[in-house]
Amino acid sequence: MAKTTQSQPDAPAAGRSDAENEIPGQVVLVFQGGGALGAYQAGVYEALHDWKIEPDWVIGTSIGAINGAIIAGNAPEQRLARLKQFWNGVAHRGSVAASWLPGFEACARYWSIVTQGVPSFFTPRPASWASIHTRVGADLAAFYSTGPLRETLTALVDFEYLNDKATRLTVGTVNVSSGRMRYFTNRDTPMDVDHLMASAAFPPGFPSVRVEGESYWDGGIYSNTPLEAVLDDHPRRNSVIFAVQLWPATGPEPESILQVMSRQRDIQYSSRAESHLERQKQIHRLRHVIRELGQHIPEAQRNAPEVQELLGWGCGTTIQVLELDAPPLDGDDLNRDIDFSAGGIERRWAAGYEDTIRMLKRAPWHEVPDPMEGISVYRVTHESM
């Protein structure tokens, strides 16, 4: 654990509207990976945009990194149009023939994506299907080429604007060789399309991407909810975090092999968020305890260098985590994360928008936090709204 100093209360962010300035501290969006499920995140952003709330920091993995880059890499007045351009570009329109046969459309769409890809996202690499034993190198060892995604991101993200740091962006990756998680952020280094491609390089479908001479994969295979990067950030700041969950952490016991496979994926891609929060709540409470203890030490002793060093581990920042859980849709199955159907995208986008509006109306940041608790969590799901 790195030593920290006591944080000061944040001043209102420059340029915010009156509605935004009601939110204490920085506004952070945390986006999971989840392929087509990421349309829900776009709906979340649209709701915030309509309420004149723009994020100070967006952190994402995989599709969350893509959505995050489009948001942070464009001026506020252009963000929503760019998001719509991306999602319209990946939407699968289906065929008239498929609509004649009930239940056949989803199957036809799945095989179309598997065999043909998504034109503005990824395309098949036939040679890879011919032999999985052929050594082609880390940059080619994948079933699909993500060249189209590179072109799409280059067109939709203004990297000059992104690197001006008006909005902070962080993307999660995992080093292929070391197996260690690494977060790239425009606060520390200029970012380009390779950083975004690396965060979306989900194996074995997509190839690894080289950054600074090393190969990286999608950070979601290590930690799909990059919440810890916000909670471990230094210096700490008062924050309201919109944590968008695409995979349900809880669910019924599966009764078939297909349900087992689906539930296994839910747990794999959602479970770390809960453990991160519990650990961070304990750590942050200890920081607040240290701060409180410091007030009971006589001033002469409190000013001693060795005591000041110990008190430096304390802080008084407050972090409010607002969880938005994407609802399941009728017809969802094991392959819902590649449901790029126009209808599926539209429904997920609408759900993200509606859920966020409900959360904004609830405005939990107005609640007075427990002075001994540094982190408050508000979970609002479809069942409780």
Parts with pLDDT < 50 across at least 5 consecutive residues? 1-17
The structure class reads alpha/beta
Beta content comes to 5-15%
Number of helices: 15
Level of helix content? 40-55%
- Major beta-sheet overview: 9 strands, mixed
Looking at how many chains there are and whether they match, the oligomeric state comes to single chain
Order of helical and strand elements = HEHEHHHHEHEHHEEHEEHEHHHEHE
**What is the number of beta strands?**
11
Taking Cα atoms only, what radius of gyration do you get, to the nearest Å?
22 Å
Mean pLDDT: 85
Shape, please? Answer: globular
Topology:
Blueprint: H1 18-21, E1 26-31, H2 39-50, E2 57-60, H3 63-72, H4 76-90, H5 96-99, H6 104-116, E3 123-124, H7 126-130, E4 144-145, H8 147-156, H9 159-162, E5 168-175, E6 181-185, H10 193-199, E7 209-211, E8 214-218, H11 227-231, E9 239-245, H12 257-294, H13 299-302, H14 305-311, E10 319-325, H15 342-362, E11 375-380
Parallel strand pairs: 1-2, 1-9, 2-5, 9-10, 10-11
Antiparallel strand pairs: 3-4, 5-6, 5-8, 7-8
Helix pairs in contact: 2-4, 2-15, 3-4, 8-10
What this model shows, in words?
The protein is an alpha/beta fold. It is built from 15 helices and 11 strands. The strands form 2 sheets. Strands 1, 2, 5, 6, 7, 8, 9, 10 and 11 form a 9-stranded mixed β-sheet that branches. It has a two-stranded antiparallel sheet with strand order 3-4. α15 links the parallel β10 and β11 (375-380). Residues 1-17 have low confidence and may be disordered.
